[in-house]
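User: Some background: our group keeps a shared notebook of sequences we're curious about, and every so often someone picks one and asks for a predicted structure to add to the entry. Today it's my turn. The entry only has the sequence so far, pasted here. Could you supply the structure so I can complete it?
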Amino acid sequence: MSSQPAPVQMRDLIVERLTGETGNPDHVLDTARACAARCVPDIASYFEEELGTSVEVELGDIEICRMTDVRLPEGSFGAMMVATAEISPDALFMTLDAEAITIAVGALFGADAEQALAPITRMPSEIEIEITAKIFDTVAQIFNGSGERSFGIRFPLEEPIVGEEIGARAMRDGPAARIVFELVFGANRGRLTVALPQRVLIQLRGDATANTSAPAGAWRAKFNEEVMRSRLPLTAAIPIGEMTLREIAGFEAGQVIAFPEQAQSQARLTARDQVLFVCELGKLGHNYTVRILQPFDAHEDFVEGLISA
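Assistant: Of course. Here's the predicted structure to add to the notebook entry:
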C-alpha cells in the first residue's frame, strides 16, 4: 500500500504539472550543451563583426536550475529579457549583468582593454539599454533557429527589463537549463545568461546531440563551390536624408527631390538586405556606374546611429 505524499511533495508535483515535467537530467544537460555549442560561435561573431569590438565570448557553466533562480536580484543594475514564443510565453530568458553591459558599451566606444572598467551602479542609460536590447535580440535570433525545430520566438522583443521593473516582474517557475556565456574584455569579465524551460528545450532540441559530430568546417567545404556559384540580385541606393511624415504625405507626381550634398559618394551596394559596400554613383559613356569606395563598416554605422539618435 503506497503512502500519501507529504504536503511539500504534493506542492512540487502540482508545480511540475503546471510548468512542465522535469526531463532526464543527463539528456537535458547534453541537449543544452549541444545547443550552446551551436550558438557560441555566432554570438562571438556578432561581437566581433557586427559590433566591431574585441570582446571574446567563452562558454561558461551549463546546469539544471529553476527559472526563478536565473532572474537578477532586486536592485541589480543589469538587464533581463523574457522572449515569448508560439509554444510558450517564456521560451527564452536572458540576463546581462552590470559588468557585461559596461564591457559591451565600453568596448564599442573604444575603451582600453588593459584598464579595469567599473561596472555601472545606476539604472542603464538610453544608449546602454539600446545596446543591451540589440544584444538580446541577436542572441534570441541565434537561439531561435529556423525550420521545424525553431522555437518560434515572436519578434520584435519587448524592451529590456531594468531598474525597479526587475523586482516587480512576475515570472513563472519551472525546471530549466541555464547556459552562461562569459564576455571577456582584457581583465574585465561579465555574464550573459540564457535559460530555457526544459519542456521547450527537450521538445524542440531533444535530438540536438545527434547532430553535433559533423564539424562546421566540413559542411562549409562540402557546399562552398555550390554557394559561390549562386546568383544574388544587387541593389545600389543613394540615401536622401530624413523627412517628416507631413513632407512625405505631401509628395506629388512630378515632384523633384534634391539629393543632399555628397549623396552620390554615399551610395550603398546591397544584396538580400545586407549592405556590402559604400559606393559612388557615376556615369561611363551612356551607362550609369557604381564605383566601390570601401567595404561597409557596420560598427561605424551603428555607432553613428546611436550618436545621432
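Suggested note for the entry: Confidence is low (pLDDT under 50) at residues 13-21, 209-216. The two ends are 70 Å apart (CA to CA).
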